[in-house]
Amino acid sequence: MGRSRILILAVAAVSAIALAFIVRGLASRPAPAPVALAPVEAAKPMAKVLVAKRDLPVGARIAETDLQWQPWPADAVNPSFITDGSVAVPQPVAAGPADGVVKAAGQAASAAGDALLNKTDAPVAALTGAIVKEPIVANEPISDRKLVRAGQSGYMAVVLSPGMRALAVGVSVESGAGGFILPGDRVDILQTRKAEGGSSTSTVMRNVRVLAIDQTTNAAPEAKAVVGAVATLEVSPDDAEHILLAKSQGDLALALRSYADIGEPTSRADAPMSAPSRAEAVAPRPQLRIWRGGTPSTVGSN
Domain of 273? Predict the structure, then answer.
């Protein structure tokens, strides 16, 4: 047997032995552990709850832009919350690379829906103009117990500015600018007094805020006039006494001011003085007698 042939057989034998060891190692290797898939969370029903966009202090008048819809777990919705009446059940999505994209798309769609609802839904429109009677923080669900609407009990106490009083003054069509004075307008209070020599009119208060006409505290948008028998005005305690004194001495009338005057302060005119009685007019004035050089003189005689 030639030398080259012996070398070929040796290489073949070594290769066969190596291949046997490789096959044996593969056969004894344990099977790979199964890859655990991320558990799929059960989908929870979600509701839309009306919340505040910003902090709302006591006395704030709610505008449409102060409210927004926010997703809320349906099982955590309190009966006092205001919802849109719908409950959405999200579709379960297996965890994976596309999960973040799907979530972002869902959030964008929800935001677009919220913007549309804020413009058209009835609950937001019904709350517009309501007054906050308890503080509401941003993202807090809106509840009726923290609001008071026109016509509800306690509305006037919430509408009043701190330290001010609500004073009722009788009016008529003639003394109330023909019924064109509406809640929220500004007026001057005039007093007319009758005397033996004629009548006189003077201004008692300037730029006074009208809170209500009769029980109307929020006139309808299309209303052009409100005819009532009583006007409720917002005044300070001292001004309330001043007006009541003027009322006891003459007839009061309200003069409607321009809307441009709404930013001007409320001011008081000179206090009305009652006309002297006839007895006071003819009563003798007090006299003072002065002695100068033994000669008396009288000061203050009639």
Answer: 162-278
Q: For the chain, report the end-to-end CA distance as a whole number of angstroms.
A: 172
Taking the C-alpha atoms of residue 159 and residue 166, their distance in angstroms, rounded to an integer, is: 10
* Residues 53-63 pLDDT 10s: 999 888 788 88
CA torsion sign, 245 to 250 to 252 to 258?
negative
Q: Are residues 176 and 111 in the same domain?
A: no
In a domain, 301, yes or no: no
Segment 79-98, tens digit of pLDDT: 888 888 776 655 554 444 44
> Does the pLDDT of residue 249 top 50, yes or no?
yes
Neighbouring residues of 264: CB distance < 8 A, sequence distance ≥ 6: 186, 207
Residue 208 lies in a domain: yes
C-beta separation of 238 from 217 below 8 A = no
Query: For 107-114, what is the mean pLDDT?
Result: 46
- Does residue 13 fall inside a structural domain? no
The SS3 assignment for 68 reads strand
